[in-house]
């Protein structure tokens, strides 16, 4: 039976005729040495170095039960010990110690297969430290060394690559690698890793949402929900229903979007982890209700979103976004004074250079247009146009042109209005935006 690290320290100490107190030092107490020897504490690499120097034994013996003299003769055993220790260090979040251990391994004679394992471990360290590109590089190196018979390992590596690409917003590459993993999972009858498959489905659904491929995203979401139902394994159910609601919104399937988003809210409300997502769902629900002309339900949803955001003490961005959508609901419900009041309050809270400042100013111009205050509407919208041009804001500028065109039509300047409509159309064609647009009604 192999000894663990604590037992090796204890044996070496007894062979030298030393007491635990003899090993203690400025940063290492007698009590800590006792815990280490009993396997109840994991020492750092520096502590192991200190103990090995006190015992006058090779650090490799303390760590792995081998000395430098016979490392090359027992590569497999040593690497097994290295891997076990590395996994423990990474799990404990002791990345500095794990990194130092990897450097030690790389200087010794490591066989072909274990090189792949070490690259995999290194990628885990980079991932935990937020160095996602470096993590991808290590995983791609690991694939070179993994035998083709180790299908489970290959599947896991591709899934990790997909995760890293998602975290750096390389969504197409994330999709590509996630599909590699899923294809291998489906064609490998010996593997039934349901949780991994669900994680990959979620990865795909999220990425498709980010690249506006909502139909494909819904197909993946339906497969994921079916798998959860068949296996009774649940993974990110709250956020997958949120993504489902977003997909239906962008596909103009408003009733389905309301069902999915309402279900997501029911799941999110029982958890304290997903407050941002809950605010987002209430915002989306308000938009969805507005699209079926349920204006009171729309306003109520926005109100709940603001309440959760206030409780969460979150950033002002959520408040600005909700009030922007809320103002649009009031405008469509012909509650112009209320919409103007909200917009004026939000202008005071926004920096003049922020995108929301332009959005709220545009809505105020629209309110004055609807209430036939044409001169005031013109002044506001011309300010928006000047600022949007300076910023090259391709979202606001075509909408500002539309509002000004309507002002010109109301004033009887039809040719000038038509010219602005053409300008707006050119912008819309150049952006090729396929997502839901809250101001689409302006067109």
Cα-atom Rg, whole angstroms?
A: 31 Å
Question: Low-confidence segments, ≥5 residues, pLDDT <50?
Answer: 68-78
**What does the overall shape look like?**
elongated
The top level CATH class name of one domain: Mainly Alpha
CATH superfamily of one domain: lambda repressor-like DNA-binding domains
**What structural class do you assign from the helix and strand content?**
mainly alpha
CATH topology category name of one domain: 434 Repressor (Amino-terminal Domain)
Q: Topology as H/E string? A: HHHHHHHHHHHHHHHHHHHHHHH
Architecture of one domain, CATH level 2?
Orthogonal Bundle
Treating each run of at least 4 consecutive H or I residues as one helix, how many helices? 23
Helix-residue proportion: over 70%
**Distance N terminus to C terminus?**
78 Å
Key terms for this structure?
single chain, 443 residues, 434 Repressor (Amino-terminal Domain), 23 helices, elongated
Describe the structure in your own words.
With 443 residues, the chain is mostly helical. Helices cover 75% and strands 0% of the residues. It has a domain at 1-65: 434 Repressor (Amino-terminal Domain) (Orthogonal Bundle), CATH 1.10.260.40. It contains 23 helices and no strands. α11 (171-187) packs antiparallel against α12 and α19 packs antiparallel against α20 (355-370). The longest helix is centred in the middle third of the chain and has 18 residues, at 214-231. It is elongated and about 105 Å long. The model is unreliable at 68-78 (pLDDT under 50).
Topology:
Layout: H1 5-15, H2 20-23, H3 30-37, H4 45-55, H5 59-64, H6 75-91, H7 95-106, H8 112-128, H9 132-145, H10 151-167, H11 171-187, H12 194-210, H13 214-231, H14 237-250, H15 254-268, H16 275-291, H17 295-312, H18 316-332, H19 336-349, H20 355-370, H21 374-391, H22 396-411, H23 414-431
């Amino acid at each position: 039976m192999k000894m663990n690290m604590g037992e090796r320290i204890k044996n070496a100490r007894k062979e030298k005729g030393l007491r635990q107190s003899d090993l203690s030092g400025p940063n290492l107490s007698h009590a800590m040495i006792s815990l280490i020897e009993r396997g109840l504490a994991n020492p750092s690499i520096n502590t192991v170095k200190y103990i090995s120097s006190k015992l006058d034994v090779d650090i490799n013996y303390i760590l792995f039960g081998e000395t430098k003299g016979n490392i090359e003769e027992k590569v497999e055993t040593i690497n097994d010990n290295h891997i076990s220790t590395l996994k423990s260090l990474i799990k404990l979040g002791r990345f500095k110690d794990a990194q130092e251990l990897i450097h030690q391994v790389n200087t010794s004679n490591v066989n072909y297969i274990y090189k792949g394992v070490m690259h995999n471990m290194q990628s885990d360290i980079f991932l935990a430290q937020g160095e996602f590109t470096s993590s991808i590089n290590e995983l791609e190196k690991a694939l070179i060394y993994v035998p083709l018979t180790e299908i489970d390992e290959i599947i896991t590596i591709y899934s990790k690559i997909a995760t890293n690409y998602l975290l750096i917003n390389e969504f197409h590459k994330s999709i590509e690698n996630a599909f590699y993993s899923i294809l291998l999972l489906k064609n490998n009858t010996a593997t039934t890793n349901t949780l991994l498959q669900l994680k990959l489905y979620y990865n795909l659904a999220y990425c498709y949402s980010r690249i506006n491929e909502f139909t494909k995203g819904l197909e993946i979401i339906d497969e994921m929900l079916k798998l959860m139902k068949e296996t009774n394994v649940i993974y990110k159910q709250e956020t997958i229903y949120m993504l489902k609601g977003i997909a239906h919104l962008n596909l103009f399937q408003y009733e389905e979007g309301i069902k999915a988003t309402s279900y997501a809210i029911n799941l999110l409300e029982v958890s304290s982890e997903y407050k941002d997502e809950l605010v987002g769902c209430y915002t989306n629900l308000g938009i969805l209700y507005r699209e079926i002309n349920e204006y009171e339900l729309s306003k109520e949803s926005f109100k709940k979103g603001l309440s959760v955001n206030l409780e969460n003490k979150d950033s002002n961005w959520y408040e600005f976004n909700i009030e922007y959508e809320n103002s649009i609901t009031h405008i469509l419900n012909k509650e112009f004074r209320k919409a103007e009041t909200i917009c004026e309050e939000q202008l005071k809270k926004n920096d003049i250079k922020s995108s929301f400042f332009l959005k709220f100013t545009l809505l105020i111009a629209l309110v004055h247009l609807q209430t036939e205050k044409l001169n005031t509407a013109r002044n506001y919208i011309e300010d928006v146009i000047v600022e949007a041009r300076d910023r090259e804001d391709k979202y606001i500028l075509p909408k500002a042109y539309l509002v000004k065109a309507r002002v010109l039509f109301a004033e009887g300047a039809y040719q000038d209005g038509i010219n602005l409509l053409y300008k707006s159309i050119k912008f819309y064609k150049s952006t090729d935006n396929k997502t839901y647009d809250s101001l689409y009604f302006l067109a």
